[in-house]
Amino acid sequence: MILEVAILNVKSGQEDNFEKDFLIAGQYISSIKGYLRHSLRKCLEQKNKYILLVDWENLEDHTIGFRQSAEYLEWKKILHYYYEPFPIVEHYDIIIENENKNNS
User: Fold this and answer.
1) What is the DSSP-derived secondary structure letter of residue 8?
2) Is the pLDDT of residue 86 over 80?
3) 6-32 residue pLDDT tens
4) d(C-alpha 94, C-alpha 11), whole Å
5) Alpha helices of 36-81 — where are they, by DSSP H?
6) Beta bridge partners of 4
7) Which of 71, 42, 45, 41 is nearest to 54 (CA)?
8) How far apart are the first and last CA of the chain?
9) What whole-number distance in Å separates Cα of residue 87 and Cα of residue 7?
């Protein structure tokens, strides 16, 4: 499994519209082969800063399967207007994973 990480700086004042449009855009990314899950998290210190976390089965599911698809063009059309500057996207592999078993 590969984790895609993107820091999203949204144009100030556009946060509510971005969040609404992100809900719509989510249908495009989630339809791609190899997509597992995603979450969008909002920064507590900077109201226009978000982090996007997407789990993929492998790197190519994102870089080829999604980025070269018609679904990506729709995603781009909905969301890319909001970013200033354009986000840097990185990919991470799991080295160590642990979870708290005490919170049942």
Assistant:
1) E
2) yes
3) 999 999 999 999 999 999 999 999 999
4) 32
5) 59-60, 70-79
6) 54, 91
7) 41
8) 25
9) 6
